[in-house]
Fold this sequence. Notes:
Elements (H helix, E strand, L loop, with lengths): L6 E4 L7 H8 L3 H13 L4 E4 L4 H4 L1 H14 L4 E4 L3 H10 L11 E5 L16 E5 L2 E4 L2 E4 L3 H18 L8 E4 L12 H14 L7 E5 L17 H13 L4 E6 L13 H11 L4 H6 L9
Parallel strand pairs: 1-2, 1-10, 2-3, 3-4, 4-5, 5-8, 8-9, 9-10
Antiparallel strand pairs: 6-7
Helix pairs in contact: 2-4, 4-5, 6-7, 8-9
Amino acid sequence: MSINSLTIIGERINPGFASSKALLDAQDIGGLQKLAVSQHQKGAEYLTINVGEQADTSPEFLAHLIEAVQEVSDLPLSFDYPHQSIQELCLKTYDQSKAAGRKPIVNSISELRLGMLDLLKIRPFRLVAMASERLENGQPMPNTTPQEIAQTAIRMAERIITTAPEMTLDDILIDVSLCPLATDTEGQTRRAIEAIQIIGSDPSLKGIHIVVGLSNLGIMLPKLATDGSRLSTKLESAFLTLTMPTGLDTALATPGRDYQFLPDDDFVLQGFKEAISMDGYDTLICLKKLYKKGTP
């Protein structure tokens, strides 16, 4: 990875990846330890732990995996579950002394789940705050504009700091949500980019972090761009090129990818800008210009 200022939360211990799912299904602790070490060596600064449905059906495996990963890596861990009971198990199992005293990350809390701040009674942690949804008149509502996302981020930050004064803005990572570009007919990628600009420029949020699930961007697209480059990595680099100068600093991503700030004349960057400026299926039509037909 060539962008040193980008914090990578290594995402691979997650059943969303076929090879990782096989290791998790087999409860292959040794294989999962090697995966943790590999991500550490490739530049991850946190490691995601997500065992999928086994968190409910086999909580002892989840606890064992946390302990096993902490035996081979001193990176702090990020627990990717929306359920308070599972996060409670993770936080009780986590040994902060084995992570050089660094706090874990609770991923994720939303306006609908602010009660999860009670978990601070177990141990201090950082948190991912989902800004893609809000609570309005007691009902969950999706945020459909960058302004709504930013307003939710501001509201959540204020409530978190008020409810948990031991936390600072440095402990909060705002997730603006990133969808696969291959299915983006509603301008969600453009919305995320604009929301990052608003959040990053708000003086009341100075010191807060902004995070996205970066690997979501290239899902379901062919491997190669028309110019022969690896399409997913170039698209992710294009996103970083547009958003890191305005506030993005953290990504759930695969460590070791050659992320770069792309020059203005880069073929994929130009095509990415054009695609996200479109609406509806014009986005997908424009996107097709970027990749080789028939590539896997």
